[in-house]
Design a protein that fits this description.
heterodimer; A: 338 residues; alpha/beta; Rossmann fold; 11 helices; globular; B: 358 residues; mainly alpha; ABC transporter involved in vitamin B12 uptake, BtuC; two-stranded antiparallel sheet; 2 strands
Amino acid sequence: MDRSSHTRSRRIAFVAVAAAAALTLAGCSSGSGGKKSEEGGADASAGKASTPRMKVALVTHQAPGDTFWDIVRKGAEAAAAKDNVDLIYSNDPNAGTQATLVQNAIDQKVDGIAVTLAKPDALKAVIAKANAAGIPVVGLNSGLSDWKELGLLEFFGQDESVAGEAFGKKLNEVGAKNAVCVIHEQGNVGLTQRCDGVKKTFEGETQILNVNGTDMPSVKSTITAKLKQDSSIDYVVTLGAPFAPTAVQSVGDAGSEAKVATFDLNKELTKAIEAGDIEFAVDQQPYLQGYLAVDGLWLYENNGNYSGGGEQPVLTGPAFVDKSNVDAVSEYAAKGTR
Amino acid sequence: MSMAQQAEPAVSPPPAPGPKQSDGRTVRRPLALRLLARPEVGVFLGAVAVMVFFLFAAPPVRDGGSMANILYQSSVIGIMALPVALLMIGGEFDLSAGVAVVTSALTASMLSYQLTLNVWMGVVVALVVSLGIGAFNGWMLVKTGLPSFLVTLGTFLILQGVNLAVTKLVTGNVATDNISDMDGFDQAKALFASSFDVAGVQVKITVVWWLVFAALATWVLLRTKYGNWVFAVGGNKESARAVGVPVTFTKISLFMLVGFGAWFVGMHNLFSFNTVQSGEGVGQELIYIAAAVIGGCLLTGGAGSAIGPVFGAFMFGMVQQGIVYAGWNPDWFKAFLGVMLLGAVLINLWVQRQATRR
């Protein structure tokens, strides 16, 4: 008796807590923003190829949790779905481990490998092995200067130096005098090339600033410090989309007049460009890189085609996004595909 | 070697001895030397040395706004360094502290956004999750008897993976959506990430929280029974248990304190940057531990203070930003940082040696 009443009262208490929680949840819903305001608009579904099922491995040097690589992967997945391809994605920022992942793909006897060449020398041997095993290999994103030498079929990407140079020219156009190039990963070859490219064509002064990209508060205060140290800086150039809005905050904190422009694009950035917080972004179209790499392998397998004619890389950037054309891009950026 | 605060005996001290001739072995050493022997004084002098150095080397540091910026950087390290230091005094490590910050921010952000709730709901749930992670760490440690290095290394890896995978699963991206236009955001921002004006200089609220938490931690360590327990379990767990210190409770609650710190910094990150990248936070745990160690906490536990890590974090922030203010070649940035930190720790050590030498 005593016991059952105990259970019952406990059950009542549980129901009461659950009800209270439900009420609180309902009462605490947000009237603005959130997922509700963004729902609607399903992805366009495309047809599917009737070619035999093939297996493709995409091996990148992505560090975990980078928005950029997420878009590359989405492009690859879209192409895989259309082309009846079974896509295996793997990644590791450490070149040695990346080589092991390529070996893993060879062992799985895939029909094609798409690989990024952030550190080409480390991948040389394993790519030769793939070629020896008769597996076609294509390159994407980084490794523009090495892909042919390593015996890759085709390459999809942006020349980081060319992108940097285009960026520098754009800075000249907008009348910048003193720019700081913010490197969020010290020692990364591609990022350094971008800054070097900017330096090459930009007629004003270009300074380099290293920040700790895994800690936003530190990025913010370091950029603030730089703007204080040199108050003549009138343009902050970030090399990755997530860092641009932070740079905007730093500019505010430092009481500086500097403007912010960036390499790469994401959803938040298109909004910031629309709002005028960020001047422009140079987009290397990561979705296209992932998509074309998988599609290129499919075309080679099923029709013997070489994208770029087997001689030239297929360039996916630099495409500039500023206030004049951001509307056309923002819809796709919101879906996480631009 | 270091004469840090030790566990005070549980019994009340014997009545003060009457005036009698000392035999020379227990002679009281001059006040200045006794002060210098305290670890937090050593680190204080180290911090002052670094600051004076940069005041000369980097003119922009002399500006009030720059100092506010340095204090901001120090405060986000310092708020986490405090519970990490308490945990170290209690004899344990937490390697998951860096990614736990991001876990907390992701939880709050995704919950509010996906269910379109008032952001305060997300904030509260994130607190529960953070405390839960701390409790899990502590519970695993107490139950299994494994070293905390291993237990929290496991949690560190788990959280790193969960942060990524769950974010991707829930949002379809690897960063959370912007929540700055949602209800409650402005209030939460006022609490966690606002700034206020001091004589024309914008000071971040985290600086205030940092000092408040430090004062609170100092009081707890020095004036409460719980503080004694912390020193006792860090000094010698078995003898602490023998004299009736609730070892299990103390250890688990210390880990939960780290969870609280992770929650607070996580909320700061969320409300100052509106979105969270799921891959952030890796490596920060070592910076927290470094700040605590520079602040005079022993790696082996049982000794340390809460005020030391405050100076430790300040030293870190000062060096990190000072290098930029000085406009030195950025390629050397990390190397400068390492050299300055080692130098500061050596000064700290030297001061202590001098002061405690007979």
